[in-house]
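Q: Focus on the chain.
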Amino acid sequence: MDLKALWNDDTPFGNVIVIAELVDCVEMTIERIAAWRDMYGDDEIAFGHFEPGRYAVGTCQREAD
């Protein structure tokens, strides 16, 4: 399936386009955010919404020291 073909100027915002079952969700803590930054860099943090209390899927496995 070509996902780019689904996205155009006529794509309405605020509509459900996918339903998924999320697994392996963890609550973000200051330590997990720091570990994520160490693994993926500052750009990942800058373009995401990382703050304690939010949840993430597939977070890095390494716990911060």
User: Anything to note?
Assistant: The longest strand covers residues 25-27. DSSP finds three helices and two strands in the chain. The mean pLDDT is 77.
